[in-house]
Design a protein that fits this description.
heterodimer, A: 619 residues, alpha+beta, 13-stranded mixed beta sheet, six-stranded antiparallel β-barrel, 22% strand, B: 70 residues, 2 helices, globular
């Protein structure tokens, strides 16, 4: 068989069109002869329209073509589209790169639709039938340096969308057309194409830069910022922007220790500390008000108070205007005032008292266990009776009240028919050093200072690094339940909570909204489940930060729409269903600041966070 | 006693006297009942319940003494 190109083309039915035309022109001026040739060509021509390459700088970005020697199929549930990679492009293509493949056009002036796809895999295939599974091959191979000339590189593509050009710009639609064999495949390096194909907003909350394999993608030398869609009130027209703010559809940031979780989170949270306003209905008047966000951060490691300060190691003038940078001015730190603890060092701060009065509507706070129905009912009766009896409820007052009713003939026990064994169980359960240390310390009870804690436009940090075990759990769950109850209830609620758009960031979230094991945890998780369902209506967003996403309650995870995964261990990855398909292996190897983000209505993409923190960050 | 209208297929309005712990409920059709020794927490939970009617049946109806006043 000849290797001569002309010989090959002579046998190529597709190429006959052009070669025969030349032959007709050269060899014949006889119209009849030419007609006969055309008829012959019609029988062998591929009955397809040509596929123009409409790509910008196609030659520069083209990496190969759709392989015709392997099956091509696109169905509703499956696909197989492979591309041959030109020899000189082998080193330029990586798994995760995005490509464009034009479809045929019906007229010369039409703009071709294009298939937008991601490189899902790369593989070498041998050119020849040569069997390399032999000792001979082994000896030959070991005597030579790496040689890939005997192989072709095939890129396996995952179609994402079809991009069409319209009068108003690019539009994306579902993949319902199959790309033609041999169509050129080009790297997608146009910002508008990438944004349209991946459905990434042009603006919003900056989260990092699009990346492949940990390296930032660049278009014309500039990185591509990734924004999370978060519409609110247009600052100029005062009109409500269309779409749902991502913050009220809840966020998860998950990553193993050392993967840059806190750094990434701080930079993301910094973006929420702006003057942006959101529509919220005043629960008393029914009027729609335009209010700024109150970001409340529950901070178990005392890492977020320094967000009030600039990062001295960066020059803010060098940062893109789309990115919020620098210490936050409207910032308050409230340290829970808890007995027998040393308050953490946070700079300027105020104390916060957890009052026993919170127990009146949340008796479960005194139930960090699973009581029997009898004990639970009796304890609730005692709590109800105490709060009815006093105008100044305190934990000590409650204990005193119980002691005065210790006798089995006491009015309390008689009224509720509390037997000795039940009474003993109650007294044993309510006498707890953690309660005495947590409740009523200091002079700033949460309800009394709620107008300072929950304030629009403010970032409020509540560090709990000085607390451990039962004290920490009771403190955090008391604050969380106060926020959630007053946010999602309608009757007799704290207006500072109810009428302020709130984003509640909970670090180490797996400690507080995990599968419940006690009645107290059950109460909090149930309320949190209600809260995440109602977040959009009540303007309450939950922002969970954790290294153990698998421990977070499944119902809450299902309602979490923006999922950010930094590097995670395999045993964690296998237990988290919301990790985007195809990233399970990569996530195990992700470096610091490398993440995959799945936001509402946006394709899951790899993003690289900023290498520096936008505010002060000591760790 | 001042009552607050509630959105429920069963209950029409609810009132509460904190000092006497009396819960007053008007049902659709005009009947009004008073329930005695009802803690403030129960009234709060009733008002914030997703379904006022279900909460009433599960937690109030058979648990407290009552009088029909209308």
């Amino acid at each position: 068989m000849s290797d001569n190109t002309d010989d090959i083309l002579d046998r190529d039915p597709v190429a006959d069109d052009e070669t025969s035309t030349d032959t007709d022109t050269d060899d014949s001026t006889d119209g009849k002869a030419a007609t006969t040739d055309t008829e012959t060509n019609d029988q062998t021509a591929v009955p397809e329209t040509t596929v123009p390459n409409s790509l910008t700088d196609a030659d520069e970005n083209e990496l190969g073509h759709v392989v015709a020697s392997e099956e091509i199929h696109v169905t509703r549930s499956d696909y197989k589209v492979n591309a041959f990679v030109k020899t000189n492009c082998r080193n330029n293509v990586r798994v995760g790169d995005y490509v464009q493949i034009p479809y045929p056009v019906s007229g010369p002036t039409d703009q071709a639709d294009e298939l937008f796809a991601v490189v899902d895999g790369l593989r070498y295939e041998p050119y020849t039938e040569l069997d390399d599974k032999s000792d001979t091959h082994n000896r030959i191979a070991s005597a030579h340096t790496l040689d890939e000339t005997g192989f072709v590189l095939i890129a396996e593509l995952e179609p994402i969308a079809i991009i069409s050009s319209t009068d108003t710009g690019l539009e994306r639609s579902v993949v319902n057309k199959i790309p033609k064999p041999n169509t050129p495949v080009a790297l997608s390096l146009d910002e508008e194409y990438l944004r349209t194909g991946l459905n990434i907003p042009q603006d919003g909350v900056f989260a990092g830069y699009l990346s492949v394999g940990g390296d930032r993608m660049t278009v014309d030398g500039d990185p591509l910022p990734y924004f999370i869609n978060n519409p609110g009130i247009d600052p100029v027209t005062e009109e409500i922007e269309s779409g749902e703010p991502a913050i009220f559809r809840h966020t998860l940031v998950a990553g193993s220790t050392g993967k840059g979780k806190t750094h990434f989170t701080k930079n993301l949270l910094r973006q929420f500390a702006t003057d942006k306003r959101y529509p919220i209905e005043n629960h008393q008047t029914g009027d729609t008000e335009h209010s700024r966000l109150n970001l409340v951060i529950l901070d178990p490691e005392n890492e977020y108070s320094e967000m009030r300060n600039d990062n001295p190691e960066i020059n803010e003038d060098d940062i893109s205007g789309d990115i919020e940078v620098g210490g936050i001015d409207n910032f308050e730190t409230f340290i829970p005032d808890i007995g027998n603890t040393n308050a953490p060092s946070t700079g300027e701060s105020r104390n916060l008292t957890i009052p026993f009065s919170l127990v009146e509507y949340r008796p479960q706070l005194l139930m960090p266990y699973k009581p029997t129905e009898v004990t639970r009912g009796a304890l609730e009766n005692c709590i109800d009776a105490y709060f009815t009896d006093t105008d100044s409820p305190t934990y000590d007052g409650f204990l005193q009240y119980l002691r005065t009713n210790e006798d089995s003939e006491s009015p309390l026990r008689q009224r509720y028919n509390i037997e000795d064994s039940t009474w003993s169980a109650i007294m044993r359960r309510v006498t707890n050093a953690a309660y005495r240390d947590v409740f009523d310390h200091g002079t700033n009870p949460l309800p009394d200072v709620s107008n300072a804690v929950f304030r629009e436009g403010q970032v409020t940090v509540i560090p709990t690094s000085h607390l451990h075990g039962a004290k920490e759990e009771l403190t955090v769950l008391s604050i969380l339940s106060y926020i959630i109850d007053n946010k999602i209830d309608d009757y007799d609620v704290d207006p500072n909570v109810k009428d302020t758009p709130l984003l509640v960031a909970v670090d180490e979230a797996h400690n507080y909204v995990s599968d419940p094991g006690t009645l107290r945890e059950q109460y909090i998780v149930n309320r949190a489940r209600d809260a995440v369902k109602q977040g959009r209506k009540d303007k309450l967003g939950l922002f969970m930060i954790t290294q153990n996403p698998e421990d977070i309650d499944g119902d809450i995870l299902k309602q979490t729409n923006t999922n950010i995964f930094l590097g995670l261990r395999e045993e964690v990855i296998t237990k988290v269903p919301s990790i985007p398909r195809g990233y399970e292996q990569d996530l195990q190897k992700y470096g610091k600041g490398q993440a995959v983000i799945k936001a509402p209505d946006v394709e899951a993409v790899e993003v690289k966070g900023l290498p520096y923190c936008l505010t002060q960050h000591s760790n | 006693m001042k009552r607050v209208s509630v959105s429920s297929s069963n209950l029409s309005s609810v009132g509460y006297d904190e000092s006497d712990q009396v819960l007053e409920i008007e049902f659709h059709g005009g009947r009004v009942y008073q329930y005695f020794d009802v803690p403030k927490r129960i009234h709060q939970e009733l008002m914030n319940a997703t379904s006022h009617g279900k909460y009433f049946h599960r937690n109030i109806e058979d648990n407290y003494r009552y009088d029909q006043i209308k």
